[in-house]
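Figure caption, in words: inputs first, then the predicted bound structure.
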Amino acid sequence: MTTCAVVGCVQIFDGEFSPYSASHSIADVAAANVLKAAILCAFGSFHILKWPVLSTVAAAVALICTKMALFRGWTDGHGAAAAVLLVTTACTLCQLAAVRSSSFVNDYGEADPDVELMPTVAVTTVPKSETAISSNAQSKSPLSFQYLPEEDDDLAEPLLTGDYDEVEAGGHNGGNGKGGRAPAADGKVRGQNGGNGKGVRTPAADTKASTMRSLLHYAQPDALLLSLGLCFLLVSATARLALPNFTSRCLAAVVSSEGDGKDHLFNNLQFRNNLAYLVGTAAVYAFFSMLRIWCTAKAEVRLMARVQRVLFAAIMRQDISYFDKYGTGQLTSRLTSDATMLGAIITTNCNWVIQTSLSLFGSMGYLFFLEPRLAGVYVAIATVFFVITRQFGSFVRKLQKKIQDVKGDANQVADQSIALARLVRAFAAEEWEQHHYDKSNLDMVREQLRSKMAYSLYVPVVAIVQNALTFAVLCLGGFYVTRGQMSGADLTAFLFYSQTVQDNMNTLSEQIISLFQGLGAGEKIFEIIQHQPTLPITGGLVPPGEPKGELKLNNVGFAYPGSPQLRVIENMNLTIRPGERVAAVGPSGGGKSSLVGLVLRYYDPVQGTVLFDGHDIRVLDPRWLRRQIGVVTQDPFLFGVSVRDNIAYGRPDMSLEEVHRAARLASAHDFILQLPLGYETVLGERGVTLSGGQRQRVAIARALARQPKLLILDEATSALDSSSEHEVQTALQTLHAKTRTSMLIVAHRLSTIQDADRILVIQRGHIVEQGTHTELLARKGVYSVLVSRQLQTELLEGDQP
Ligand SMILES: Nc1ncnc2c1ncn2[C@@H]1O[C@H](COP(=O)(O)OP(=O)(O)O)[C@@H](O)[C@H]1O
Ligand SMILES: [Mg+2]
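Bound structure (magnesium ion present):
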């Protein structure tokens, strides 16, 4: 259609401006607009192109009107003009209608290959012997297990294909991969080896090339869009390449008609034609650039969202030990800044690299075509200068990088001081913090000045180099022109193109650098995506019938993957019978929370087995297991959503009655009703609008709402004042009387667990004593010492006021 417009323009400038040709031109432009609208309709995405389209149409109308007014075509052609206006209005209306009906917003692409974000563990074929061993001679036959419904095989395509088949097949988490199904005991075997990821094959993507391949894989759903973008890019880049040629030809025509006495420059045919070509080519360039940007930007946005989505899923399924190892900041920056950099590779970087390469080599070729000797000399000098400026540029960049580091340090100081403002105030450490900040601030100033100084040198160096090149071309080219070996027009064109070559050299090298930076970011992202956790989050066996809530530890030993030498739990044997209330006490660091982590299967033991209802938890579906266990920790995190949603967390289908019931059981109902919006009150970040005790009770309600068969409280009431603690205590007793839920209560205040069925004293990873309160007191061991110590403290505290 742009060609039509170009032809129209040429016709306008060409010939005698007869009404006949004018209406022809109008017809062409109108046809161009109709065609444009049709093509855009086919793409169905004017919501992005709305304004460019409208303004192009408006410009076309304005152009036609101006032309007709100027060249008296109006009287003859007003019928045609009216037609054009009508057609354009109709087209615009069509376009707007298409915008409204467009369904392109918010989707990731029609054929997203990465739909299986939470792959099920392929525990479908458990070897009989394994199950028999792991369920520890239980009476049930392994065949009595019911399997989780299998995922649709189409959906269960591996996350990545191609290079990653191997990885997928090796890791148990993407178990439905083509490589076959990993047996259930896979995790178990690894666990017993003390494996924290050692059994998993290392990801294939440790090179830039494979990062690029993975990226292309994720870009697949937008292949059409990207190919279109590439086509548009080729057209626009070619048009851009041709522009200086027409400019120089026009200039040559102007120069040649200098003082020739003709009244109108437009009568110069050479000028007129080249101007028309210039306008036409510029229009082609502008229009196709717009299409290219639209196509690639859309692909980039969708690609980024797709990668982020898969990355988020990959992060969420990692082992707890993975989160111990990598901080929140690291993982979130993968998700934000790294993903952005990666997304930019396809559009911004690749686009520019292709466009500038085309432009660079095209211009260079044209230089050689114009005058090979001059071109040879030019390219040789330009390359040398380019290397020099690059070196200098990388020096400046290094300085800049240093500034970033120093800035980061200063920001970190500020971040911490601001975040811990209360602490700073409490310790009257404002001056100390100021001193700290001033120091890094001063470093920043120093580094910045250094870099600015270098930059102030860099700019003139570049300017000198550029002008020296122009100087060389002018001198040598001028020499050829005076000797008649080159035309003036060619020299003008040469100058224009040499400028293009220089610009493109710089752009290309910059773009290649950021391309590699993007690939670096991508490497880190795909590393996480391909990192297979050792513990599954879903998939496995679900025992039939109603769960009883029995917990058993058989000779369990455990060390954190981060410090495998240090056994935090050793040879621990323990049984919590259904409905039993067991308390665990002991000095801090004794291993109580680690025990809780093992029961929830945050980690696998390095020795022995943990059994729930008689089944090794390693063969059970972790999701099912965790559904049977309610847990409340010492500093419970509440989400920034309503109280109701916090209590019904993870179960959006929970009725309001169930939520109320859970809140009542946790003695939270009354205070929740007093909140501004009751159950609909949205909690602030980390639930700051609630007091510690209130937060704790909401967290208890959240655990109870799932009606767990085993309730674990890890120092859940430690932060409560005595009266709230007493309330929760009574609530728990009532709950226990009603539901006979098994309980494991890790407590700090011994007074709260005196009525437990059994008390365990855990010290240095061992259960050193167990029995009822009276039994343990009578034994006069560790427990009685702990009790008397706490009694003394409480007495002292009681004396104070
Ligand atoms: N994520 C972890 N990584 C490595 N070591 C840990 C981790 N969490 C706790 N530990 C260590 O394990 C030991 C037991 O801690 P924990 O189970 O929290 O004790 P308790 O809950 O009884 O106070 C401590 O020595 C502690 O330093
Ligand atoms: Mg603890």
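Confidence is low (pLDDT under 50) at residues 1-20, 72-77, 101-116, 118-205.
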